[in-house]
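JOB MANIFEST
job_type = single_chain_structure
chain_count = 1
residues = 494
[input]
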Amino acid sequence: MRFFPVCLLLCFLCAWTARAQEAPLRVCLVSGSFEYDSDTALAVFKAYLEENFAAECVLLRADGWENLPGLEALDTCDTALFYTRRLEISGDQLDRVKRYCAAGKPLVAVRTASHGFQKWLAFDREVLGGNYKGHFGEGPSIETFLMPSGKKHPVFEGVEPFRSRYSLYRTKPVARDADVLMTGSTPDSGGRQPVAWTRVHNGGRVFYTALGGVGDFENRAFARMVANALFWTANRAPALKPPAAPAPREKRAGGIGLSLRTRDAGDLASEGRAAAAEWPAAETAVIVCDMWDKHWCDFATERVGEMAPRMEELLKRLRAAGVQIIHCPSETLGFYQDTPQRRRMRAAPAADLPAPRDIQDPPLPIDDSDGGCPGEEDFYPAWTRQHPALTIAPEDGISDNGREVYNYLRQEGIRNLLYVGVHTNMCVLNRTFGIRQMTRWGFDCALVRDLTDTMYNPAMPPKVPHDEGTELVVRHIEAYWCPSVTSGEIVPGK
């Protein structure tokens, strides 16, 4: 008979434990890095965390260098995130932080937290296991690399590759008992530096990342990493809320009037010939190719920046007419991880590929073998996201995979493609979602010739000005691949 009450007690304890595990994670976000605008960064992260995870956050903000009110929240939270920089708090406030760490409580620290407390700079070495010694120069993006331990660690579950725009910290060597999960490098770093690691301090789990600025917290891959880290330090599995299914695209009646310029094969000298055409809006999409926020070539970055506002106006007009917009910023999809626009593209069922069309493909009329930049700049992956001047609306799509784009186009009954973006002679033509591949798969394509640009150095053959080099590539495309049109010759509502 004694066994029965014991069983009841065990059942009660199991049920209580299960309910406790289901309770929202209580997170204390501690902000005080004025240089990096941590208030804005953590507000962005708080919204992301509470929208996508079973979590409740309290955000503490430093009131000047010497005051960080609200730290009593550390007494009741499940885990805490510190994003501070050289705060000069003292007395009970600093003691509260020290007591939290001494008790082995779960801790996530971001970027400047390595030197977060001017009167406790040993926090970096003693708690985080770090070795902050300044940083490399500003400007180049940080390319990140997962270590073998990182590839299988819960902190990086569901995290797509990403880059950071901020300076790379000098962090090595870290503590011997630190498990480095990710490293990073820039063109001037001379090798890789640890940028994310875990450690156990006084029995409590600690995670630190040397990455993190407002732009990083807007990056959903980075935000997912930090969210995973919070749950991991609390020894809990990430409680993801089920994402809402992307809304189906609204297909509208009406057409798009175009004046399409074509020319005969081999004819690059004439002005070509124009013909009027009308494409149904519901059967038309715009492919926005590699309109990155930054390029390794400064000249390319400048030209994209000048082009983006004009492209935004065209996309607004076409979107309003019911044309599908598909953003294809290659190698930056981590920034848009799990967004509705990204899920929309991934959700399309696999479609049977047609036999590719056999199309004549002679060499381009320009020599871009030097990379196409007139300066002395060296190639590096500078991009982290699409140019912020371009709106990504809820009904848009995001992808950089040609097969994925093909699946979605077939699902939606889209057979006409307008191409905008860069660079005409490289990505616009050659990406898996580019003009060559989609033309071979049977789509009717057209290049918007005033919303594109080439990577061409005028010092290379045929030694013409940059704009003339671009025009030669456009004419080559008209002769062998598809017609072109100007943005002013695209008239919605025809």
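[summary]
Residues 1-20 have pLDDT under 50 and may be disordered.
The longest helix spans residues 298-320.
exit_status = 0
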